[in-house]
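Quick board copy: two proteins, each given as sequence then tokens.
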Amino acid sequence: MHSNPGQPGRFHLLLSSHGQPVQHGWWNSESVARGKLVRGVGEYGTMPGGRITLTDEETDTLMQVWPQE
């Protein structure tokens, strides 16, 4: 997961393991952020206690969670 350095975007993607942050990034494009989420599930889907969240930082809305709760 990567983002634009120095300029956080609207959409925040967070990868955590057992509640601890592991990696995160911000994007201005929702479609790019959703694509990164799908890619993250493929790359980190077997991580013990893994969880990926996509949040709209502008509206403070949790948009997607993997695995689904």
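And the next:
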Amino acid sequence: MTAQEFLLKCIADSWLDGNGDGLSADTPLLELNIISSAEVFDLVHAIQIEFGIVIPIQEIRPENFRSVSVIADLIERFPRN
């Protein structure tokens, strides 16, 4: 499963009651209130478990969580354990 596939499924399952219709890699997640700034930390936790990476706290900022494609790029920047 790619990072984008994981993120789309995780977001749909966790915040959209399993209905990912209309959710794409470029959907503005925070702008559309699909996930809140507080829920970003839940998403970070899921990412860290799934991909075996550590996302430093200074990287957890709105511009890194704008969309699935931006988050997938963030995931790729960190080495997997």
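Board note added afterward: The domain at 3-76 is CATH 1.10.1200 (Non-ribosomal Peptide Synthetase Peptidyl Carrier Protein; Chain A).
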